[in-house]
Every structure is written in structure tokens, then in C-alpha cells.
């Protein structure tokens, strides 16, 4: 089923004819050829930017589309509608507390302490090797240790990985490796910066005593360990186990891979540890203890936790930070589960349990819900953080008829994995049936999956512990694979989750319905009626039964799909971060891979992803006359994506992260450009050729010749 605007409106309960008659937007057949959006908030009054391909909102005839889009110029900049401007708040390397603004800033939360003043809490996800290396000297004011670079390059040529953890502490080379990888890990984690808006209407930093960094090595040398709550704490405190134990007990060194997040009603911020498997071992033993650090050795920019002997089971969690407390360096709440967290949406209502939704951003990853054991009394009370100490984590199981249920990840839950015939790639990763070896195996034969289910009847049969708490902790540590074992729906990379403030329905951004080596999405949920998978992503809306936060059943519906309009898409691809404004309008950014952007063909075949230009910021109203349309509000610099999306309370400013400009090509040399012939489709599917002019690499944000690109946090405001 292709989700055209008519389908979208029907789902929302909006009549198409009524919408057309009462439309408040007008058509403009100028070079921009885009509708004028008119709404009640400053950001809902704009003329959409000219997108690289024709969109339905342009209201152009086929011939007009061919004429207006015969050429297009990509810009290495944040491109905004007329009447809006952006300002840089902070860039990689800027001072933050006793450290620096990290790399690839992602999620942003603005905690306002008074009108026009407050704290920005910012995630720093990972380091992009090419631009990071190119910009390191100028940002840090010192040279990279080329002895380490040379050792890594030699190892790469020899196809070797390096177990630095196994090197004796007395060897100088070990300290050199630790110093090098500490530089990379310091550029990850979480930052708190204070800001205010001055009399001229510009935002500025105030450098308060609360400004601080929580890095990937916090606690390694400075005793700024992260704390932990929940059942997995019992595993961390074990002195002996089947696998590796770091002997730090419930102290944790650092946080990294910090992608999206969420803000609680009580003013704390949650940061999601996503692709931790690139740093430390993901696999665990049956008792929840880690595989040894040598199982994930140093290999270029991967295996970053190896030199420090980090225990893998302590990463892949949600981290809570109170920006107003300068002594708070984060708490990992293990009842929220260990998996490749992308985001969190928090529902806290008086006299109801606290509910946390989160997705696992991997091929075949699941949607989860935590329900607290105790109830919320006052949603604004910071004591609500204690509710995360006890409750239950559930995994979503979606049925083809649009219904679903939440399955508890607890010891007595029946092992009942999804039949492989229902998975697009016919593969499912499960806990290794040989529990003495631990880890996981990818199964592509149904008879082997059936044997697994016959051998292990319930989750408690798969996990070991001396107490029920230890067994529960092991399940939470292995949440993704436990979710596979009990039949959680294998999804299409759930990226972000956001609650509509008007009705508390949940919108989920699924980035791409493709299959991988260890997982694949359920084709009953993530494909249209013709069996075509939503490879360019989709948006889903989920409603709890009777709108009860702790409901164990729900309904779901796909409300939008990515791809070209000619093929039934809404014009975007690979939806990522989401944010609602206070009137229930949805704002969304895309995360198309840098190497695919502005590509004319793929192996001689027309490139349906490359035609869409750079990543963009979209406005999607869910009610009113414009409901069901998708409007491009901004485009990003070369090879970058926008992340974060945080409005101030009066919604006169929008903070965004511009992440990894120049990630693939690096620094743009001498303002280099090239022309590419791109095959474009009109709205009704006629093919024509566009000449596209494309910068080669990036110099953003300085936009000065030959200057390296730097990830930066910006704020957008009306002029």
C-alpha cells in the first residue's frame, strides 16, 4: 500500500474534499514552485525551500516540472526558507567546562530555567575518521600521534586487529594507544552548556558552573564514574562469572555512541547509547557477564574500548543526566534494556505508571516499552527518576491486522520466535543454543529454530543466575536477543519515537526496511500490499488500547512512507529524528548515507535514493488544511545530517545539530564542484534528465576555502 495523501488523511479522519475546499495554502508557480504554508506558530509560516525533485506540493504541470527542475545546485550550507536565519551556538572543539564540545553532536534538549535562558544538553555520537583527522590539528592545537597512526595503518594492510588490552601495562606503546583512543572517546558522550538570549535577540553561551562534559572515558582517570540502577546492577556486582568482569562493580567508565534521546517531564535528559558494538563486545555469556575485551580488538576506529579493558555489558543503555546538578555525571537505568538505543519517549501522568518507549536501531531491531512498578504522583517531581529502579520491560509484537501486544521480558515468558517465513531476509539471531559458549547465532533454517524452541521453553531456561534478580539482569543485558527469542517483531530500524502532545499517540520513524546478515524486518508489517518492502523508511503511529499508558495491547498504522512521489513516497527517505511542536505538527529529519547522496546511478541502474539531494528537515502537519503534506523546511551541508530538533518553550527558536559534514569526502578543496546527470521522475512518473551541480566535500560552518568541516549546533529563528 503506497501511502498517498488521500490515505494519510483518511487515517487521520480528515476529509479530502473538505480539505481542498477550505485550503489556506496557495499555489505559487514561480521558480520555487512550492505551496506557502500558513499556521499559528512562527515556524509554520514559510515558503518551502526548492527541493531537488518535484513534489506534490509544487502544484506544477508535467512540463513545468521538467522545466523548473532541469537544473539544480546543491549548497554546502544550511539552506532555509526566506525569512529565517541560523546562528552557530557551538562547534567541535569549543570549550565546555574543563573539556571540549565533542564530535558529531546529535540529540539536543533545551531545559529552560527562565524565559530565554537555560541549559542545552547535547549528545556526541561518534567520530568520522576522515574529517576528524583532517581537522584535529587545528581544533586541538596539537598534532596527532603518528606513531599510533602508522601502527594502525600497518595492521590494516596486514589485515590484523590489535589486542591492546593484552599488552603489559609497563609497555609504553599501551599508554600511547590509550591516549590516542581517549582523544576519540572524549569527543563522544554528553555535554551540558548554558545559554541565554540577549537583548539583540541572539542566543549566546554563558559558561556557567554547571557546564560540563561526560565523555567516553569519564571515570578512567578522574573518578567521574557513571552510576547504575536496576536488575543488571546485580550482574555488575558479581565477583565471579562465566565471562569477563572488570572488577569495578557498579561503577561505569564513560558513555559513547550517544545518538538520540529524550527529555523527562521532571527536567532530566536521557541519552541513548546506540552502536556500542563497534567499541566493546556486544555478546554476553548466559549469566550476563561480558565476552573478554580481546574479542573486540582495535581495528582502526573500532574497538575503542579495548585499550581500557571496558566490559561490554555496561554499554548499550539509556543514561539520565540532570543538567542543573554540576556533580551529576549520569546514571544508566538497566530496566530500560541493553540494545542499540536510538531514542526515548516518556509518558508520565499523575496516578499512572511512568512509561518509556525506545527503539533498537538495527536491522530487525525491536520497539520496547518500560512500565514502572510504582505510579507517578507529580510528573514534574525529580524523584520520578527513582521509578526506574523497578518495573518491567516489554517488547512489541505487531500483527498484520494492525493490532499488537507487549510481551514482558521476564523469566517465565515463553520462548516463541517469529517464523522465518515472515522475515524478509529469512534470518533471525538468537541466543546461542550452546549456552556454555554464550553469544548469539544467526539462524536461517526453520528446523533449527524449532529445535531451539523445543529445548528452551521460557527465558529463564536461557539465562543463568543465583537469584531471580541475576536472571532478570541477564535478560535485560541481552534484551535484543531475548526479544527475538520471545517473538518480538523484527522491525525496520526504529530510529526515533515521539509522543503527540495532543493525544499521546506514539509516532515511530523506521529508517529502512532492508535485510542484514543477522536480522531482517517482518514483511507482514513493513511492506505494501504488493510485497514491496519500505526500503526508504516509513512512519508508524501506535495507539495504546483505551489510551492507557500501561496497556498490554495496542493498534498501529503506517501513516507515511519514504521514496519518490512517483513511486508512492512522500519525497523524503530514511526518516530519523522526530519532534512535535505544541500544536501536534510533526517535524522530521532524514538520515540518508553520505555516500549515496546526489548519485546519478548505481551500477548503471537509476538511483532512487541519490536523486533526493542532501539530507533535509521536513514539516508534516497531522491536522488542519495541510494535513498529509510533507514540506521541506531546510537542507543540510554536504554529506551531513540534521539531528536533535529542540524548540524553546515559546517555539520561536529551533535548535538542531548538524552532524558529520564532509564525512565521506572530507575537506572541500578550492571550492571544488562537479556536475552530475541525474535521472528525475515527474510526479506522474515521466523520466527526464537534470544537471546537478554538487560541491565536492565540505567547508561548513566556516565556508572558507580549504577549511575543514566541523559538526556544530545551530539555532534557527525567524528574521
Please, could you describe this protein's structure?
The chain has 11 helices and 36 strands. Among the domains are: 102-341, no CATH class; 348-561, no CATH class. Strand 18 (391-398) and strand 19 form a beta hairpin. The chain starts with a helix and ends with a strand. The protein is an alpha+beta fold and 719 residues long.
Query: Describe the biggest sheet?
Result: 9 strands, antiparallel
Structural class: alpha+beta
Overall geometry? globular
**Portion of residues within helices:** 10-25%
Proportion in β-strands: 25-35%
Radius of gyration: 25 Å
Which regions have little confidence, pLDDT < 50, spanning 5+ residues? Answer: 13-33
Q: Note the gap between the termini.
A: 41 Å
Mean pLDDT: 94
Number of helices: 11
Major beta sheet, strand line-up:
15-16-17-18-19-25-24-23-22
The total beta strand count reads 36
Topology of this protein?
Layout: H1 5-12, H2 16-21, H3 62-68, E1 71-73, E2 84-91, E3 95-96, E4 99-100, E5 105-114, E6 117-124, H4 129-140, H5 146-157, H6 172-186, E7 189-197, E8 203-205, E9 212-215, E10 227-229, H7 233-236, E11 258-263, E12 269-273, E13 318-321, E14 331-333, E15 345-347, E16 353-359, E17 367-375, E18 391-398, E19 403-408, E20 428-431, E21 440-443, H8 446-455, H9 459-462, H10 468-477, H11 479-485, E22 494-499, E23 506-510, E24 538-544, E25 553-561, E26 575-580, E27 586-590, E28 601-602, E29 605-606, E30 616-620, E31 631-635, E32 641-647, E33 654-659, E34 673-681, E35 687-695, E36 712-718
Parallel strand pairs: 1-35, 10-14
Antiparallel strand pairs: 2-36, 3-4, 5-6, 6-7, 7-8, 7-9, 11-12, 12-13, 13-14, 15-16, 16-17, 17-18, 18-19, 19-25, 20-21, 22-23, 23-24, 24-25, 26-27, 27-30, 28-29, 30-31, 32-33, 33-36, 34-35
Amino acid at each position: 500500500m503506497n501511502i498517498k495523501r488521500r490515505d494519510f488523511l483518511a487515517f487521520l479522519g480528515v476529509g479530502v474534499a473538505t480539505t481542498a475546499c477550505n485550503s489556506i495554502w496557495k499555489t505559487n508557480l514561480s521558480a520555487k514552485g512550492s505551496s506557502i504554508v500558513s499556521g499559528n506558530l512562527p515556524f509554520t509560516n514559510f515558503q518551502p525551500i526548492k527541493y531537488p525533485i518535484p513534489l506534490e506540493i509544487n502544484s506544477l504541470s508535467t512540463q513545468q516540472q521538467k522545466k523548473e527542475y532541469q537544473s539544480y545546485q546543491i549548497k554546502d550550507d544550511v539552506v532555509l526558507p526566506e525569512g529565517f536565519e541560523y546562528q552557530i551556538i557551538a562547534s567541535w572543539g569549543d570549550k565546555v567546562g574543563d573539556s571540549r564540545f565533542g564530535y558529531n553532536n546529535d540529540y539536543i534538549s533545551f531545559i529552560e530555567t527562565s524565559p530565554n535562558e537555560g541549559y542545552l544538553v547535547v549528545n556526541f555520537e561518534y567520530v568520522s575518521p576522515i574529517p576528524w583527522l583532517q581537522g584535529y590539528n587545528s581544533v586541538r592545537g596539537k598534532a596527532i600521534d603518528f606513531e599510533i597512526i602508522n601502527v594502525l595503518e600497518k595492521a590494516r594492510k596486514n589485515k590484523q586487529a590489535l589486542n591492546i588490552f593484552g599488552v603489559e601495562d609497563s609497555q609504553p606503546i599501551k599508554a600511547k594507544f590509550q591516549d590516542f583512543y581517549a582523544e576519540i572517546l572524549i569527543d563522544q558522550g554528553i555535554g551540558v552548556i548554558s545559554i541565554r538570549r540577549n537583548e539583540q535577540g541572539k542566543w549566546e553561551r554563558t559558561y556557567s558552573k554547571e557546564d560540563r562534559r561526560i565523555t567516553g572515558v569519564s571515570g578512567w582517570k578522574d573518578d567521574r564514574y557513571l552510576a547504575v540502577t536496576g536488575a543488571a546492577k546485580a550482574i555488575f556486582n558479581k565477583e565471579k562469572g562465566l565471562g569477563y568482569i572488570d572488577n569495578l562493580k557498579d561503577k561505569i567508565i564513560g558513555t559513547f555512541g550517544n545518538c538520540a534521546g529524550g527529555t523527562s517531564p521532571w527536567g532530566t535528559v536521557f541519552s541513548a547509547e546506540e552502536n556500542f558494538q563497534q567499541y566493546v563486545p556486544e555478546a554476553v555469556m548466559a549469566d550476563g557477564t561480558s565476552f573478554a575485551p580481546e574479542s573486540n580488538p582495535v581495528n582502526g576506529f573500532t574497538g575503542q574500548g579495548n585499550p581500557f579493558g571496558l566490559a561490554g555489558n555496561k554499554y548499550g543503555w539509556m543514561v539520565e543526566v540532570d543538567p542543573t546538578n554540576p556533580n551529576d555525571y549520569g546514571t544508566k537505568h538497566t530496566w530500560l534494556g541493553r540494545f542499540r538505543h536510538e531514542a526515548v519517549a516518556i509518558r508520565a501522568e499523575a496516578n499512572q505508571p511512568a512509561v518509556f518507549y525506545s527503539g533498537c536501531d538495527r536491522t530487525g531491531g525491536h520497539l520496547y516499552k518500560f512500565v514502572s512498578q510504582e505510579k507517578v504522583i507529580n510528573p514534574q517531581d525529580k524523584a520520578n527518576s527513582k521509578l526506574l529502579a523497578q518495573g518491567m520491560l516489554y517488547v512489541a509484537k505487531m500483527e498484520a491486522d494492525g493490532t499488537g501486544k507487549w510481551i514482558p521480558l521476564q523469566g517465565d515468558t515463553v520462548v516463541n520466535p517469529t517464523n522465518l517465513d515472515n522475515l524478509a531476509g529469512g534470518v533471525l539471531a538468537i541466543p546461542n543454543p550452546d549456552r556454555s559458549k554464550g553469544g548469539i547465532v544467526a539462524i536461517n533454517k526453520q528446523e533449527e529454530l524449532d529445535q531451539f524452541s523445543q529445548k528452551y521453553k521460557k527465558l529463564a531456561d536461557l539465562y543463568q543466575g543465583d537469584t531471580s534478580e541475576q536472571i532478570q539482569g541477564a535478560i535485560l543485558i541481552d534484551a535484543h536477543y531475548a526479544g527475538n527469542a520471545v517473538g518480538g517483531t523484527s522491525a525496520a530500524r526504529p530510529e526515533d519515537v515521539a509522543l503527540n502532545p495532543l493525544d499521546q499517540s506514539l509516532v515511530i520513524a523506521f529508517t529502512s526496511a532492508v535485510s542484514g546478515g543477522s536480522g531482517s524486518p517482518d514483511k507482514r508489517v513493513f511492506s505494501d500490499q504488493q510485497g514491496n518492502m519500505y526500503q526508504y523508511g516509513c512512519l508508524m503511529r501506535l495507539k495504546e488500547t483505551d489510551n492507557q499508558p500501561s496497556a498490554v495491547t495496542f493498534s498501529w498504522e503506517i501513516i507515511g512512507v519514504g521514496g519518490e512521489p512517483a513511486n508512492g513516497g512522500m519525497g523524503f527517505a530514511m526518516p530519523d529524528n522526530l519532534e512535535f511542536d505544541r500544536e501536534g505538527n510533526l517535524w522530521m529529519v532524514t538520515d540518508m548515507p553520505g555516500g549515496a547522496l546526489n548519485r546519478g546511478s548505481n551500477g548503471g541502474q537509476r538511483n532512487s535514493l541519490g536523486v533526493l539531494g542532501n539530507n533535509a528537515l521536513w514539516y508534516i502537519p497531522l491536522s488542519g488544511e495541510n494535513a498529509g503534506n510533507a514540506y521541506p523546511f531546510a537542507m543540510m551541508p554536504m554529506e551531513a545530517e540534521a539531528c536533535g530538533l529542540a524548540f524553546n518553550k515559546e517555539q520561536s527558536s529551533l535548535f538542531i545539530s548538524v552532524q558529520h559534514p564532509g564525512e565521506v569526502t572530507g575537506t572541500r578543496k578550492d571550492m571544488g564542484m562537479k556536475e552530475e546527470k541525474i535521472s528525475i521522475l515527474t510526479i506522474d512518473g515521466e523520466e527526464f534528465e537534470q544537471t546537478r551541480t554538487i560541491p565536492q566535500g565540505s567547508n561548513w560552518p566556516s565556508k572558507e576555502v580549504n577549511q575543514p568541516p566541523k559538526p556544530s549546533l545551530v539555532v534557527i529563528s525567524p528574521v
